[in-house]
Automatic annotation (TrEMBL), chain A:
Cofactor field: [4Fe-4S] cluster
Pfam families, per database record: Oxidored_q6 (PF01058)
Region Disordered, residue ranges: 1-26
GO BP annotation list: aerobic respiration; electron transport coupled proton transport
One of the record's GO molecular function terms: quinone binding
InterPro entries named in the record: NADH_UbQ_OxRdtase-like_20kDa, NADH_UQ_OxRdtase_20Kd_su
Positions of the NADH:ubiquinone oxidoreductase-like 20kDa subunit domain: 70-180
GO cellular component, one term: respiratory chain complex I
Family of the protein in this entry: Belongs to the complex I 20 kDa subunit family.
Membrane-spanning segments: none
Name of this protein: NADH-quinone oxidoreductase subunit B
Organism: Halolamina salifodinae
Biased amino acid composition, Basic and acidic residues: 1-23
Keywords tagged on the record: 4Fe-4S, Electron transport, Iron, Iron-sulfur, Metal-binding, NAD, Oxidoreductase, Transport
UniProtKB/TrEMBL annotation, chain B:
Name the record gives this protein: NADH-quinone oxidoreductase subunit H
Subcellular location, record wording: Membrane
Main location: membrane
Keywords from the named record: Membrane, Transmembrane, Transmembrane helix
Annotated organism of origin: Halolamina salifodinae
GO molecular function, one term: NADH dehydrogenase activity
UniProtKB/TrEMBL annotation, chain C:
Organism annotation: Halolamina salifodinae
GO cellular component terms, semicolon-separated: plasma membrane
Predominant location: membrane
Region Disordered, residue ranges: 1-22
Name listed for the protein in its UniProt record: NADH-quinone oxidoreductase subunit C/D
Subunit structure: NDH-1 is composed of 13 different subunits. Subunits NuoB, CD, E, F, and G constitute the peripheral sector of the complex.
Residue intervals of the NADH:ubiquinone oxidoreductase 30kDa subunit domain: 41-157
Amino acid sequence: MSSERELFRTDDTQVQTETRDARMTGQGDRFNSKLREVFGSSPFILTKFDKFMNWVRGSSMFMLQFGIACCSIEMMHTYAVKHDLDRFHAGVPRASPRQADVMIVPGTIVSKFAPRMKRVYDQMPEPKFVVGMGSCTISGGPFQEGYNVVKGAEEVIPVDIHVPGCPPRPEALVYGVAKLQERIANGEASPVTVKPYELEQFGDLEQDEIVDELASEIDEEDLVMRYNWADSP
Amino acid sequence: MILQSETPLPDTLANLLGLGGFGVAGEFVASFIAAFIVGNVMLAMTGVAGPWAKRKITAKFTDRIAANRIGPAGIGTIPADAVRLLAKELIVPEGADRPAWDIAPLIVAGSAMLGFAVIPMGSGIQVADPEVGLAYVFAVASIASLGMVMAGYASNNKYSMLGALRAVAQNLAYEIPLVITGVSVVLFTGSLRMSEIVAAQQETLISLGGVAIPSWFVFVNPFAFVLFLAANIAEVGRNPFDIPEAPTEIVAGFQTEYSSVYFVLLYLGEFLHIFLGGAITAVLFLGGAAGPGPESIGFLWFVVKIWAFFLFTQWLRSAAPRLRIDQLIEVGWKGMLELSFLNLVLTALIVGVVV
Amino acid sequence: MSSLQEGEETPEIESGETELEALLDDLIVDRDDHENAPAFVIRPDTVQETLGRLKEEAGYDHLSLVTAEEYPDRYESIYHLKKFDDPTDEVSIVVPTDAENPVSESAEPVFRTADWHEREAYDLVGIDYDDHPDLRRILLPETWQGHPMGRDYDQNRPQMVPLREHANPLEDDHRSESDSDTMFVNIGPHHPATHGVLHLETTLDGEQVVDVEPDIGYLHRNEEQMAQQSTYRYQIMPYPDRWDYISAGLLNEWAYARAAEDLADIEVPEYAQIIRTMGAELCRIAAHMLAVGTFALDIYGDFTAIFMYAIRDREKAQNILEDLTGQRLMFNYFRLGGVVWDLPEPREEFFEKVRSFTEELPELLEEYHDLITGNEILQMRTVGTGVLPEEVAKNYGATGPVARGSGIDYDIRRDDPYGYYDELDWEVPVEDGCDNFSRLLVRMREVEESAKIIEQCVDLLEDWPEEERNIQANVPRTLRPDDDTEIYRTVEGAKGELGVYIRADGTEKPARFKIRSPCFSNLQTLPEMSNGEYIPDMIAALGSLDIVLGEVDR
């Protein structure tokens, strides 16, 4: 078994730091201000306009109706009678990702689901925001050591706000959403960066043992997500 | 007693602004201004209804508070929602059938706007009063189905496709009872002209202890009113007939793939259709803009009536389960259609014998 | 193969055993008894014959669980059989297979439910089942490399998961052989009606469902591996809360507690049993409330009044549970041998709170009946749809409200008593409509029964003498059950028969920990209920099954 292990980096010091690098670099303009591109700099009227737009985006948001695991139960409670997230102008669940602004990721992400979640995230129109709910979206939580568990939502999509807890209480989620609104109103958002686990075309992947093994099963054009478990932080 | 102004709004405006002297061009400008005013009034109402009133009403039915942070009772959510939705990225799905995909939302919203042209809203607000007003309003309102089919077909999404097909099946099944029931009212009035339908409802039906009950057709023929209401709710696709959208079954139906501006148009279009449904109900059964007080506040009564209809749809949304598509079609073809014809025949007999 | 453990088996069962031995005489190779049941070792090519005889002639009609595990020298599949009439009458069939070429005969022709169980065994452990209709991976992606519950699986190995586009909706689709006018739709894994991350591969003919195939594994978070890496005494207990996470935490914890306590011969004090019973039934109320609420959501189509009211009433149950355990959802309240702490002080206030909850419950349920079951449109939608006949339900190993909605009078709390249930006065609601409406009714009536149980528990706890309030038995700090002892124990979870199989190897961690998830078996019945029905009925049927993906996928 030790000889097999050589094929994959399991030593922490040898691990590629793509994950961390990807997070540090790369800036995307989340707010897509075309006017700003045209003007180049930021004249007074545009800063006021931006401020207004940020206020608008922070003041009202549609949520994606999206449940994964345990946290989605507490998320339902957050939407419902007692905690009523809609008081913060953030409680309209939309079933279609095309019409949602905020995705609350409520639970553990496993290998089979991550490509689908990535796809749903890609289907949302910009500007979009993500609230990671619970420990599993931070690190994999109690299931971090599992063979099948993605170690946090950040591995797949950018996350703006992390709400810790297992599961977080509804009050905590309300606080997280309020904080997200505050951030948006201040014009802050996590940059869109290349994530370690991206959807790529199978044909574009570097040849190695696992690609060879699967070559007969997966078409060249199929999108795949490759998990380098040893690289996970 | 004639509450309804006989002069349509463009003529009033033309007189007011002295545009009469410019001939066709003047008429055109006057009509344009009138349409602009009516259109904006209705858009403003849907603007209030869509992002705010709907949430507040649903919240009241479900023991919640809903939006309350910006402005009194959260009314500030309206501009915020509108600007945010309009400023979102417009995603065109791969494989979308382009011109159809773009035109569909316009058709859905536009068809409802066209309908308002002939609605007498009281206080002299009516853009046009053609002789075939009622036929016209039913005709344009049902163009929306075309928009839904286009939206569903062009989206290249299976849920959209299912939603579109459901929308067609539903509209086909309920359009006929709707129109037939509407015709039973026409039997009384003898005219399709909207203002005459309203005028026919102004006489006192019966006086009870000094309170004069007008001869609104809801009192004259309550059976037809119930039929019409049910068919109308199916026509605008609200619970329990919200089958074309059915969030738990087919995500968001024909509008699944729409984002940003187009989504706003579809969303607005739906609310416009609710209000148009309310307006038709008000004109046919609830005496149009009639109500206590001077004639000049007729518009307020009209608004009250269409909002009452809106409230009714929201009440159903909170309380009524959704029918299954085959049950809906069955109710439409086997129940509503027969009942509406029965109603028509009975009304014809009564009108022929009594009146 | 293992040391025969002399249990507390009654002579009655022993005489049953001799009969069984006679029945299977030519098939039995060896004995390998478990703590809970006699176990017979058979050859891998006689699985169907053995199980067939047991089902037809001895009346073991319930295949509760299939456990697969890998030993250094062999693979083993264990079929845990029970009787729906008497779940205490158990027998296990152990099928060892060769380490090099692990092929065993499939039990699917005898018990339909074995289909998914054997697919899981193939997926996670790597046993091949001969004669299985559709042996594919079930929990892990189809392109996964290796079998993770096997002995030498390298967890750091990279894996690849494809995301395949589905075909254009307007193109012809020829999935169904008989009719080319069908359309293939993926429902889920992100869809408002799937109650989490379930994927339904649906073939439609217009609005009608020709074929539906649940694709699970989108929440497979290695619960069994986690338990195998944790110590019995403290580390495993937090995980059961996360199996069925709809507030059914205490019910799940009890499944583990029951298995581990019986394995280590721990006697739980009576007082703790009453607290457990009360807490568990509060959990059941909360879980059923959500089931009713989401079922209404599926039928009504929006976050309507019923959903909100259900959540409102759940809040009340959760508040009481929070007072009791300190947590809203993931309680971690049971300990082996008892519970972690006594009722909160002041006790009177707590009792008052529980009583006011149970007292107003009938009134609340009346409101639900007015809104839901009394609604004619809802009856139109649910009566006679999603029909699951009794025999089919048994064949699929359906349990809990799903089985009871199909007229199967089966409830572990009564039939295989544990806790304090046999001392209390309550009933098992059974409806024989076999449809969506019956399952809804069963859940609502179970809420009433749970309230009755809670009331009786509160009365008992209130009068319990202060000096006898013993919440915890003496349990050694480190628990090391004897080497090579095996046990399979079930309890009545919110969704049905929830079981845990543990094999001890003399260390402080289990060598094999297998969860019998009721939702896993229940979900398997979905195609039976919805093939040929309309899409909305399939959604309603799925809602009435009340699955929790955390428990299906584990």
